[in-house]
Write a structure and sequence with these properties.
Structural class: alpha/beta
Bound molecules: S-adenosyl-L-homocysteine
Distance between the termini: 18 Å
CATH topology of one domain: Rossmann fold
Shape: globular
CATH class of one domain: Alpha Beta
Largest sheet: 7 strands, mixed
Length: 260
């Protein structure tokens, strides 16, 4: 994506406050620590206020992890979508990011990251994300994990994510181009593995690369779902083996082999 294509938020207002990302990220995180009910009025239709509303919606959906809510209130999602979609950036909807792929819904991103953290205090250690897409979820993860390794099989999206993330200068995000079916051995073992694309089963490599005490969250096709649809799978690796739970239905793009 070119600089020209990346509009400020919202596209039609001139007093946008997103000119300097670092400054606005600071504003957003300090705002996120104010109880929602007592927030100052009259912020206007800038992206901080719109994100705060998105966070309220996430809370209504049942997201309770304060660190996850704070991260969702901080990362400027509108910087990850094309200019024509900027005004939908804070709706709870997936949006096209090119090459037939989508940025996940904020509700799903926050749900999966909440599961990944499983109530832990403090930051996760190293996390592997399969399916970088536009880089949005990697940016959210960067606030909640020590290191984020994110792998993408489509060169065009890997490049787009790099460009999108440049603005944020996130030193702990490592973007990798490759087939995430093999995981990423060099960063292993991982405290968390999170997949943004769904296959028929979880590749063995992911389980092997998970640390003991680590957790994997991934969409998988399941016979338990109507029509073999996808559900969220959570796998905990313990000293005595794996513990699995299959949760609610989800809709992710397919996990595919090879690179393109
Ligand atoms: N987390 C992303 C969501 C992207 S959609 C975001 O925030 O935008 C899922 C992505 O998974 C797609 O870009 C798709 O190309 C990628 N993907 C599918 N199979 C993959 C594989 N085997 N390895 C790496 N990426 C894969």
């Amino acid at each position: 994506m070119t600089e020209k294509a990346r509009a400020s938020f919202p596209a039609k207002l001139s007093n946008s406050r997103v000119g300097d990302g670092r400054a606005s990220a600071l504003r957003a995180s300090s705002l996120a620590s104010i109880p929602l009910a007592s927030r100052p009025q009259g912020l206007g239709m800038d992206s901080v206020a719109v994100r705060a509303r998105m966070v309220q919606l996430l809370q209504k959906q049942g997201i309770v992890d304060a660190e996850v809510l704070k991260a969702m209130g901080t990362v400027e999602r509108h910087r990850f979508v094309d200019s024509a979609l900027v005004n939908q950036a804070y709706e709870d909807t997936s949006l096209p990011i090119g090459l037939g792929q989508t940025i996940s819904k904020p509700g799903v991103v926050s749900r999966m990251i909440e599961l990944l953290r499983s109530g832990s205090a403090g930051k996760l250690g190293r996390v592997l994300e399969i399916g970088t897409g536009c880089g949005y979820q990697a940016a959210v993860l960067s606030l909640l994990a020590q290191e984020v390794y994110s792998i993408e099989r489509l060169r065009g999206l890997h490049d787009k994510a790099r460009e999108n993330l440049r603005h944020f200068r996130l030193a702990n995000v490592h973007l990798l181009f490759g087939d995430g079916m093999h995981g990423y051995e060099k960063g292993a073992p991982y405290a968390g593995i999170i997949a943004a694309a769904g296959g028929d089963a979880v590749p063995q490599a992911w389980l092997d690369q998970l640390a003991v005490g680590g957790r994997l969250v991934a969409p998988v096709h399941s016979k338990a779902m109507a029509g073999g649809g996808q559900a969220l799978l959570v796998v905990d690796k313990t000293a005595n083996g794996y513990q699995q739970s299959l949760l609610e239905a989800v809709h992710f793009v397919p996990l595919k082999s090879g690179v393109a």
